[in-house]
Amino acid sequence: MFLVFAGALRLLSGNRLMARVIRSASWIVLGYGASQAIRLASNLILTRLLFPEAFGLMALISVVTVGLTLFSDIGIGPSIAQSKRGDDPDFLNTAWTIQAIRGFALWLVACLLAYPAAWLYDAPALIYYLPIAGLGLAVAGFNPTRIETAHRHLAMGRLTLLDLTSQIVGIVAMIVLALLLQSVAALVIGGVIGILAKLGLTWTFLPGPPNRFRWEARSLRELVSFGKWIFLSTMGWFFASQGDKAILGGFLALETLGIYNIGYFLASFPLLLGLSVSGRVMIPIYRETAAKGSSRLRPMRYGLTASVMLLLAGMAFAGPMLVDLLYDPRYAQSGAIVVLLGVVLMPQALGMTYDQAALAAGDSRGFFVFSGSRAVLQTTGLLTGVMTGGLVGALFGMGLALVASHLVLIWLARKHRVWDGQHDAVFAGLALALGLTTLWLQWDLLAVLGSMTATAQAF
After folding, report:
1. Domain membership flag for residue 9
2. Which of 116, 237, 244, 387 has its CA 20 to 30 A from that of 146?
3. Has residue 245 been placed in a domain?
4. Where are the beta strands (DSSP E) in 114-198?
5. Are residues 113 and 205 in the same domain?
6. What is the CA angle 38-40-41, rounded to 5?
7. What is the rounded CA–CA span in Å between residue 275 and residue 349?
8. Which of 313, 336, 290 lies closest to 450 in space, CA to CA?
9. Are 330 and 426 within 8 A, CB to CB?
């Protein structure tokens, strides 16, 4: 027992790549798990204090604010992670200056979009709430680049604790405001307070020199050269991550959209955990590993994919019971959504460790080709599905799009010599078996989803 413990300590200690990877991955899993637990606890409290329409309206606000963030992202985080100048103060300060200017610009655009969004989704309250939510974008623009430096060097411990602390501050604010206001304003204002808390905590407690305004031409050229494809890629990521809500918001009533959002929150937890781990540790691994196709990556790839896929299947199987246990009857239909989404998201788990190889190699153009292809496929699948088969059709269309986009991801992985055909064959078979078994066991519940699509609201 002592020898096992000593061996584990040796594996985790020191500054070797794998030691830093394991420590960082452990912090990411711990932080993400704690973050989702906090979100779930707050969700349970807020769903009892507010009403389903509030969560539907908040989903639309998130579509706009996340869309603005992604449609203007020039990849400052990945640039710092992969650049040889990623620790140069001039480079970091130039990146921070761009980030701060962008934050204020996003706030102004959010104000300008408030009325058109309110008209598009027939939700007048967006006129008042979008400018408030946009304040959070301006505040986040001043977050220090020490956050990205911590990601670059796989030093995640302190940052994880600060993220959790700021999240707790924001959620406590939401709950207090919900008690006082009984309005969706509690969610909007509480979100801004959480962002302010993160700004103050990271400036105060993250190690490193403070950022200053700087505009160095050399740094600007490098950031723009790498970031122009990231900019286009994140536009694609918007449709991949928010496209379902943006499209379904035009076909579902606000109450139904709120119920869908609760189901998505539960079903997507395993996949978002896996993407969080791979997105933070794979660029440093690929950057520091000379042989990118090395078998050293295989155990990590297999372990991550297996964990996420089994968690998705478990969530799909237990989703209805979980919803009945945690939520009041107004949200009961979320259980069926958890079942179907748990199955639909399985194909995306196959390729979690591939796409970051392109960014580590500076191939932001290749990354854009994959992201753009996935966005087109997923948007087409969602629209075609919802128009022909309602909510069930939309989700099945999204699942087929994820399968098709994996073929593009294989092309990108082969280009950078990181594709593992054996891995994909094993887990594609596992996904098919788990998905069909889950659908067979829960088939009666899926009939509930057919009545959830409102035909009165169509784009």
Report:
1. no
2. 237
3. no
4. none
5. yes
6. 65
7. 8
8. 336
9. no
Per-residue pLDDT of the chain (459 residues; tens, 9 = 90+): 333 334 444 444 545 555 656 666 666 667 667 777 787 788 778 878 887 788 888 888 888 888 787 766 667 777 777 777 778 888 889 989 988 998 899 999 999 999 998 888 888 889 999 999 999 999 998 999 888 887 776 667 788 889 889 999 999 999 999 999 888 889 999 999 999 999 999 999 988 889 999 888 888 888 777 766 666 666 666 776 777 777 787 777 777 788 888 888 888 888 888 887 777 677 667 766 644 445 567 777 888 899 889 989 988 888 888 888 888 787 888 888 888 888 989 988 888 888 878 777 777 788 888 888 888 898 898 889 888 888 888 888 988 999 999 999 999 888 888 888 899 999 999 999 998 988 888 777 766 666 555 443 444
> Is the Cα dihedral 60, 72, 395, 420 positive or negative?
negative
Residues 211 and 64 in one domain: yes
Same domain, 393 and 262: yes
Based on the fold, state whether residues 195 and 258 are members of the same structural domain.
no
